Structures are given as structure tokens and as C-alpha cells.
Q: What sequence folds into this?
């Protein structure tokens, strides 16, 4: 068995230039009142599932799950919109925009959980016990009360599997698979 060196997560990349501009504007506003390490706008995405550290063999199982989703479920999820609005903070210091109107995101998340069971893939134990659809905006922020922002429409038109291992104290992101919705 391979050594765990992969850091996997499923996401929906945000590619629409207008949406990216609106998210960047919200991020600029947040920077005025909340210190932190803000993410580059090129990496804006909606998190579906942080999978965690995995072996090469299990990366193949997650890729298999993506193929099953694409073959059997993607047709049921043509591109759709959700809305990003309130800036919140996770306990570990990550600032994020909530994504409302996200019923389809929950459906997709739970379909993947079912597919994992079908293919006997044991998802690593999650640090986070519940799913919160979100767009990460910053890390290492102090505590703050949720902040209402202008609603931003976000087009969801893909599901992407990312590998983000840490190399020399920095994460290196690489796209392993993408499903177009």
C-alpha cells in the first residue's frame, strides 16, 4: 500500500469572470475589517467534500466514484445557480461565505457518500461532522460575528477532484478529474 501523501477534496470551481469579480469585491471589503491570510481569487471554489489524506490506491477509488457519478448522476444536475452571502468563520480560523439555495449541493454530496459505500471506499474520518456549503475566503482570521454581504449568484457547472499535498510548507494544487454539469 502506498504512503498517504495526497490531500484530496471535491469542489465546484468558480469560473465565471463576473462572479469572481463580485467575490473578489466581497473579499476586499472583508479585508478592511478582518485580518487574515486571504486566498487568491484564482482558487475560489465551493467545497463539496474535504476527503483528506489518502494513498495512491484510494485516489483511484475516489476517481472511480467520480466516473460513476458522471455516468449515472451528472445528467440529473445540469448547471445551476446558488447564492453566496454571509461571511462566517470556522473554529480553526477559516473565513468563508455561506452558499444558500444549496439543496442540490447536499444531494451531490450525499450521492458521493452512497457511491463510496457501493465501491467499498472507506472515506477517512472527517474532522468536520456536518457539511456546510461554502466558499473559503481566508485563513488565520480572529473570531468575528457573521457579516451579511450582498448576495452573489454563483454558477455551478462542474465537479472537480483536487489533490493539494503540502510541499515545503505550501499547498500545491493539482486537478485530477473534472465533471462538466
A:
Amino acid at each position: 500500500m502506498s504512503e498517504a501523501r495526497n490531500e484530496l477534496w471535491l469542489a465546484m470551481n468558480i469560473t465565471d469572470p463576473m462572479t469572481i469579480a463580485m467575490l473578489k469585491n466581497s473579499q476586499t471589503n472583508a479585508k478592511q475589517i478582518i485580518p487574515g491570510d486571504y486566498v487568491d481569487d484564482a482558487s475560489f471554489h465551493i467545497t463539496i467534500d474535504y476527503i483528506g489524506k489518502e494513498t495512491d490506491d484510494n485516489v483511484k477509488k475516489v476517481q472511480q466514484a467520480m466516473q460513476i457519478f458522471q455516468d449515472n448522476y451528472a445528467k440529473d444536475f445540469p448547471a445551476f445557480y446558488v447564492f453566496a452571502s454571509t461571511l462566517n468563520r470556522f473554529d480553526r480560523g477559516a473565513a468563508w461565505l455561506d452558499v444558500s439555495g444549496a439543496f442540490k449541493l447536499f444531494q451531490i454530496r450525499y450521492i458521493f457518500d452512497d457511491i463510496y459505500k457501493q465501491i467499498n471506499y472507506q472515506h477517512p474520518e472527517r474532522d468536520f461532522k456536518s457539511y456546510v456549503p461554502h466558499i473559503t475566503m481566508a485563513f488565520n482570521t480572529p473570531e468575528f460575528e457573521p457579516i451579511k454581504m450582498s448576495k452573489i449568484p454563483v454558477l455551478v457547472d462542474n465537479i472537480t477532484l483536487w489533490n493539494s499535498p503540502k510541499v515545503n510548507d505550501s499547498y500545491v494544487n493539482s486537478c485530477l478529474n473534472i465533471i462538466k454539469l
